[in-house]
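WARN no homologs supplied; continuing
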Amino acid sequence: MGVAATFARRTRHRAASRRAVLRVAGLTCLAGAGLGGCGFRLRQAPRFSFRSIALAGFRPGSPMAAELRRALEDTRGPRVVERLDEAEVVLESLDDVREKAVVALTAAGQVREFELRTRFGFRVLSPAGQVLIEPTELRQLRDLSYSETLALAKELEESQLYRSMQADIVDQVMRRLASIPPRA
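OK structure emitted
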């Protein structure tokens, strides 16, 4: 087999590869056009009908309050104010609880699995006291397997699971805040 035959075979292979790439790109474009036609859109930052918000009723150093404050600042949405009389909207924490319960034990009585729970209750008020969002309770739960030989790793996993649950709850709160209609 000569150099010319090897070159011809490589050229045919490259052309086939280009056709395959173009075919995949074309199908991807068609799929994207189909999703756009059905009304699908990527999730965007929420738009709020108010310019300032106060966070009330949180215990000092609350991780939920810190996460909410961070999320509001990241969206470049309403400004978080400390004084209630400066706010157009007040998010009042009614309940902010983290729980851990044993759900499975080994035959020797050692813990095998925990259930982690996060519960956040809140309501949203106007400064005049008008209820904008009725008292709402959001819950998240996760299962955590446990082994005493991996105690440090499981402790880290537990804290990551709590952060994940907290982030999910904050996302839900943000969507609810964005649903508040503009006041006349």
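The longest strand covers residues 89-105.
OK
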